[in-house]
Amino acid sequence: MGRGTGKGGEAAPGPGAGRDEGPQPPQHHPSRTEHSPHGQPGQWEPQAHREQAYQEHHAPQAQQAQAEQGQGEQAPAEQPRQDPTAHHQLPTPQAQFATPGQQPPPHVPPHPVPPQPATPTEQPPWPTAPPAPGWLAPSAVEEELYAAKSREDWASYLDVLARNELYYLVPRAVADARPGQWGPAPVWNPHTGTPVLALYTAGMLPAPLADPVFVSCELAAPARHLGHPGDPPWLVVNPDSPCEGYFPTTPWHRSVWQHHVERNADHESRPKLRTLAVGGPLEGPLAHGLACGALLFVNGGHLWNSLAFHGSGYTEARKSLRTWWGVHSRQQWLGHLNRLLAADMVSGAWEFVLGIRHSLARSYAGPIDVAHWREVAERELRHHAAQTEVRLGPEGVTRVEPTGTAELEGQVKGVKRLIGRIARYEARFRADGLLAENAYVRTVEAWDHGRASGMARWGVAARFGTVPEAETAVLAVSESCRANYRSWEDFAAAFVLGRCLHFDDEEFGSWYQDMVTAHHVLTTDPASPWLTVPWA
379 and 339 share a domain? Predict the structure, then answer.
């Protein structure tokens, strides 16, 4: 999906080239001055409309899906809590998922007939909701939507939607049984008096619950899939918020959405810092631990400080953990998280050669020549190989015989090659601004700890873990990283080296270049946690 403005910033000829992209439903101006869920006066709290009462329409569907798939393993249930690190905490939702043919509640007027534009260039005005004094948008995306809505620039509003991930609510059993299939749950909207398709941007999502779940999509999905009998007549973006938008789902309007999707498709997507201004920690140990995973989150286009993490939605979170980590259950997720927290996935060979150099640097108080480094590493290997080692384990005292000659020679050659790889990577790091002159990496445990910061949140998105569990893990990451490294620069070079040794094989391809780009963002953007959150 493209992430930027269309070429030249102008609308191409075709549907929706004008500013007003559709009529507004019957006007409603809910109060915009409610307190935020985090106790910040003047902030807006979403009206209750997201998770509750989906059972009315989807319980039979969910039961059928469970019968097809079986109940998936999930994190222990937790009581909702007011957490300053979570996204918008919602009150108990009141809106209902709509059943096709369902009669509207007695207090809701009959379905209105949405007014239709006569031609693509002759559109009725869309009244703008009153401003929201003091409202702080959760992230830059909602800020852009609100700004476009305030100027009645619906073309720009749709451009923002076309460049960003959107999310819809679905029962978890349905998401498990039919992953990747379009199937949002229509929501009854009292303002239109109809079922609506409710879509949300990332900053507007509440903290993840066990059920239902949010699934991600692009604007192209409703443009393509709506239009069947019984489909909701309205699409509502971030309902009951100051940046909300109402769009009829007529064929003409869906062609407008598709036009905006196509004109933004070729825009180059570059990593950028995305921050949760409301609901995400911006200082302190928790923000520090989250920032230890920022290279991954900037590269992935996600909010770096989102602890109540949704990522690209529930289905994609499960798919990614399954594909990249072989994680299919909560137990497997916990096992991987605990190993990463203990830096138990980093190669022992990497740590051996880096430890040799660090010891030499402390002894000689200066840079260590690569030939000297290799010589000492070889001597240490041969010395240990000649020893008969006694180990104390679960089975008692065991004796480990000396390493055989062929195995030893293979280890010596491998260590020498590894030292050469590390030296060449560090030279490239210095040329690209990742490592200061005469600086070197002491340990690559950062590679595990940075991934632990991510794994904690990926587990939340996949419903293998809870927000409190993620918070505990992220705080542990912060403590370990501060003990091992002296600065963000020190940590970053170690993380990137670990990634390159793991994946890149000295190709200096995307595994490396992506980190150079993310590193540049995190060291130059004034809002970067690497510039706003002190290391120590």
Answer: no
Characterize the bridge pairing of strands 396-400 and 187-189. unpaired
Tokens for 245? 């938008």
**268-293 core/surface letters (b: 16 or more CB in 10 A; e: else):** eeebebbbbbbbbbbeebbbbbbbbb
Alpha-carbon span 430 to 441, nearest angstrom? 12
Q: What count of Cα atoms within 13 Å lies in the side-chain half-sphere of residue 174?
A: 22
Q: Is residue 112 part of a domain?
A: no
Total tally of structural domains belonging to the chain: 3
- Please name the amino acid found at residue 516: V
Q: Which of 241, 267, 293 is the last residue of a domain?
A: 267
Entry pTM: 0.78
In contact, 492 and 360? CB cutoff 8 Å: no
Assess contact for 71 and 463: CB atoms under 8 A.
Answer: no
Query: What is residue 398's three-state secondary structure?
Result: strand
Residue 79 within any structural domain of the chain = no
Structural domain contains residue 119? no
Domain shared by 141 and 88, yes or no:
yes
Same domain assignment for residues 263 and 300: no
Q: Which residues of 416-435 are buried (b: 16+ CB within 10 A; e: fewer)?
A: bebbebbbebbeebbebebb
Minimal CA–CA distance to 209: which of 504, 486, 485, 461? 461
Residue type at position 21: E
Maximum mean pLDDT: which of 99-113, 367-381, 387-401: 367-381
Q: Collect all residues with Cβ–Cβ distance below 8 Å to 431 and sequence separation of at least 6.
A: none
209-247 pLDDT per residue, tens: 999 999 999 999 999 999 999 999 999 999 999 999 999
Q: What angle do CA 431, 437, 439 make, to 5 degrees?
A: 115
Domain final residue, candidates 236, 267, 298: 267
Q: Pick from 8, 1, 7, 19: which is nearest to 220 by CA?
A: 1
Burial class (CB in 10 A: 0-12, 13-18, 19+), 204: buried
Verify that 427 and 506 share a domain, yes or no: no
CA nearest neighbour of 134 among 33, 247, 245: 33
- Within 8 A by CB and 6+ apart from 254, the residues are 222, 223, 226, 227
Closest C-alpha among 104, 135, 103 to residue 34: 135
